[in-house]
Amino acid sequence: MTTTGRGPNGPLAGVRVVELAGIGPGPFAAMLLADLGADVVRVDRPDASALVLDPAYDLTNRNKRSVRVDLKSEEGAGHVLDLAERADILIEGYRPGVAERLGVGPDACLERNPRLVYGRMTGWGQDGPLADRAGHDVGYIALSGTLSMIGDPDGPPALPANLVGDYAGGSLYLVVGVLAALRHARTPDGTGQVVDAAVVDGSAHLATMIHGMLAAGAWQDRRGSNLLDGGCPFYGCYETSDGRYMAVGPLEQRFYEQFTTLLGIEEQTASARDDPGRWPELRAAVAARFRTRSRAEWTEVFEGTDACVAPVLSLREAPGHPHLAARATYVEHGGLTQPAPAPRFSATPTAVRRPPARPGADTEEVAADWDVPGLRTAEGPVG
């Protein structure tokens, strides 16, 4: 069960994390650790104008606390090293070499705390020909081959927001990495270490099953030609009469039979399931049927069945769906509706405990809790 409230909870309660402020996958990874109960202190810059979103709405900074440190000042690195000395995990998302130039690289931090897990989050990784190049999610998943699989075969690849690269291929791999390294660091002979998480590596790894299918001849290396990429007429999305969409996925025969019966497809047309040469005929028939009714009407038709059909809901619609409401998949905290922490734990439930951290708002509290009194003078000039 996921709850809202205050106080320590979650399986990572007692774990201390330092997050050097950045954008993209680093903050999301730190949010996930915070959701799981870790005490995450975000080290923000003095100049708040660098922020890309009003801090009050930046949900990736929920459940964290923030201090301001000017890393370019003479004392800045020392304050971060003081935090690192008391932490279990540190996360940074700078380009390779930047943390070292600022005096807070792995060597300096591990010298102060030999059991520290130092997590590095980049797009290209810490080495290789592109390591020093600028980039964003779309370029990383393009190079890893993952982007090539997504979208209509007659158009350009479709952009999956930054979910596949930054968050799935980046943040989640960083979290798995730092928690695995933390497990090692806490063994009797364990030590700290550096975790090099790169979006290109993670997004490539996500396609492991597809590479196996490709090698076996069960996957075509072109978009929209396969079972799971839109090439199959019974695995995709169809427009309804009101311009909305239904998602269809009855891959198994028994589910497919329910689907075609409820949709009203003739038996002869339904038999095209096992003949890829007839898939265009089947797709046209399915599309024509879906265009005869609204999304709400089709939702009612398939409700309570195993036909594997669901309405495509918008971000604003999703929290109101009865199933998601029953599971409290979304919660409201501080006036903001947001996804609840995931996954769920029976003995150590997670929670949205704090609203998004405001830069520097928790300096006094962290200075006392972590016994780093120098933080109180660490902010420098605030822009």
What does this structure look like?
With 383 residues, the protein is of the alpha/beta class. Helix content is 33%, strand content 14%. The strands form four sheets. The chain has a six-stranded parallel beta sheet, sandwiched between helices. Strand 8 and strand 9 form a beta hairpin.
Termini distance?
41 Å
Largest beta-sheet details: 6 strands, parallel
What do the pLDDT scores average to? 94
The whole-angstrom Rg is 24 Å
Task: Note the total helix count.
Answer: 14
Helix content: 25-40%
- Widest beta sheet: strand line-up: 4-3-2-5-6-7
Class based on secondary structure composition and strand pairing: alpha/beta
From the spread of the alpha carbons, the general shape counts as elongated
- Total strands: 13
Proportion of residues in β-strands: 5-15%
Which runs of at least 5 residues are low in confidence (pLDDT < 50)? 1-7
Give the key terms.
383 residues; alpha/beta; 6-stranded parallel sheet; 3-stranded antiparallel sheet; 13 strands; 33% helix
